[in-house]
């Protein structure tokens, strides 16, 4: 069965909707404001990790015909369970799900209250996740229908904001607030968590195509990759537009909260109506995202426990934990996410690149194992250093890591990974090839 161009295009829009997590919109304006005159260099780095890596993840899944668990199993079954669990926790109750409630609070509640407070955040979180849990447990398709309508409307609204901001900027681009703009943008792109989600979303598209009757693996791979390109183009345009507005209009924003900045920008460009519309749109978008992620966690952990823990129980536990963490506030959630993301992201990047190059080294397991070891040693050492620093202990690990090429750019793991990959190639003839 062959799909029409229209069907392929709609598949791309569906993938764009999956990646278009409402929480991701808060990062480009802040990066644009801080990058100033280095806006485009910083955004190039952001696009690499915030758009390029997700596209690579979707491509890897499409070519391999399996999700993250399948790809990670090429290293070792135990590694597969561990890394998949960590990724689901990141895009679930530890980071992404609490962020949806915190973002809703900052964009849709604080601008109308005038100031933030612990009580209002707690009330917002409880109400938000009560609604999420009701939809998840009822399994209603209403939220899917809302999402299909909401995503195009949100994109349309953002397009209007971007056009107004580009042609009628409220200020001029200022001086940069940091050095190494590419590195800043590259690491900031981790916050989208889309590369982590791509190896899961890609399989959703593959399964959807199979349900439509598409059986040819090459056709499925081609359509999925094309859909990924469509989603990548859409994300890039939106991110670049929001960053430019942040670099111009955002200069008059005096706060430090990325969620409140987005509300400020829409209000500055479209008036009070803009503030109301972005509040409603972001609330519904965050609800849609949270419901999908809670359901994903429920399915994964229920299956991981061999159904000893029910889907409903997992969903309830996920919502309770997310509610507690959401009350840390958006700024604290983003702060806590940094050590976890800079540790997990390089491992996923290596896994995706290996999957894309699978045939070049004949899919030998040893290359997978040694490469992952190379990346893991560096990022885990950095994680230990960051944790120790929180307790006022200096282990001087950074002094050792500093000798790694590109460490100042957050890419110190690249050289050890390449070295270990070559080492794995030498060992490869002694080990078996895998599919």
UniProtKB/TrEMBL annotation:
One Pfam family here: Branch_AA_trans
Any GO BP: isoleucine transport
Transport keyword on record: yes
Membrane topology classification: Multi-pass membrane protein
Main localization (coarse): membrane
Gene Ontology MF term list: L-isoleucine transmembrane transporter activity; L-leucine transmembrane transporter activity; L-valine transmembrane transporter activity
Cellular component terms per the entry's GO annotation: plasma membrane
Classification via InterPro entries: Brnchd-chn_aa_trnsp_Livcs (IPR004685)
Keywords annotated in UniProt: Amino-acid transport, Cell membrane, Membrane, Transmembrane, Transmembrane helix, Transport
Highest taxon in the source lineage: Bacteria
Stated role: Component of the transport system for branched-chain amino acids.
PANTHER family according to UniProt: BRANCHED-CHAIN AMINO ACID PERMEASE BRNQ, BRANCHED-CHAIN AMINO ACID TRANSPORT SYSTEM 2 CARRIER PROTEIN
Family membership: Belongs to the branched chain amino acid transporter family.
Protein name: Branched-chain amino acid transport system carrier protein
Biological source species: Desulforamulus aeronauticus DSM 10349
């Amino acid at each position: 069965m062959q799909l029409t161009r229209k069907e392929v295009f709609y598949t791309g829009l569906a993938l764009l909707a999956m990646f278009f997590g409402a929480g991701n919109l808060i990062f480009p304006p802040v990066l644009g404001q801080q990058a100033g005159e280095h806006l485009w260099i910083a955004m190039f780095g952001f696009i690499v990790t915030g758009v390029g890596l997700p596209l690579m993840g979707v491509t890897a899944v499409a070519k391999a015909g399996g999700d993250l668990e399948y790809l990670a199993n090429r290293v070792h079954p135990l590694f597969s369970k561990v890394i998949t669990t960590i990724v689901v926790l990141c895009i679930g109750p530890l980071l992404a799900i609490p962020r949806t409630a915190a973002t809703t609070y900052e964009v849709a509640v604080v601008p109308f209250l005038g100031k933030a407070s612990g009580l209002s955040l707690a009330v917002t979180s409880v109400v938000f996740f009560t609604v999420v849990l009701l939809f998840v447990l009822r399994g209603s398709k209403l939220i899917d229908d809302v999402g299909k309508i909401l995503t195009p409307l949100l994109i349309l609204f953002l397009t209007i904001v971007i056009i107004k901001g580009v042609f009628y900027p409220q200020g001029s681009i200022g001086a940069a607030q940091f050095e190494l703009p590419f590195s800043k943008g590259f690491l900031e792109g981790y916050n989208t968590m889309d590369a982590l989600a791509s190896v899961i979303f890609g399989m959703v598209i593959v399964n959807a195509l199979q349900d439509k009757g598409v059986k040819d693996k090459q056709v499925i791979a081609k359509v999925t990759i094309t859909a990924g390109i469509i989603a990548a183009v859409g994300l890039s345009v939106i991110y670049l537009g929001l960053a430019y507005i942040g670099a111009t209009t955002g200069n008059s924003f005096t706060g430090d909260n990325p969620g409140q900045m987005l509300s400020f920008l829409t209000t500055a460009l479209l008036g009070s109506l803009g503030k109301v519309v972005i509040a409603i749109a972001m609330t519904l978008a965050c609800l849609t995202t949270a419901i999908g992620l809670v359901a994903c966690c429920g399915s994964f952990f229920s299956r991981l426990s061999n159904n000893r823990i029910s889907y409903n129980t997992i969903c309830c536990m996920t919502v309770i934990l997310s509610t507690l963490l959401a009350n840390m506030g958006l700024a604290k959630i983003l702060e806590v996410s940094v050590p976890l993301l800079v540790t997990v992201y390089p491992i996923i990047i290596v896994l995706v690149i290996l999957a894309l190059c699978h045939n070049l080294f004949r899919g030998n397991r040893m290359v997978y194992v040694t490469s992952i070891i190379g990346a893991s040693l560096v990022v885990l050492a950095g994680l230990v250093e960051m944790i120790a620093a929180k307790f006022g202990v200096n282990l001087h690990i950074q002094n050792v890591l500093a000798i790694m090429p590109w460490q100042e750019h957050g890419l110190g793991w690249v050289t050890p990974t390449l070295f270990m990959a070559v080492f794995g190639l030498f060992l490869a003839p002694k080990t078996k090839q895998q599919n």
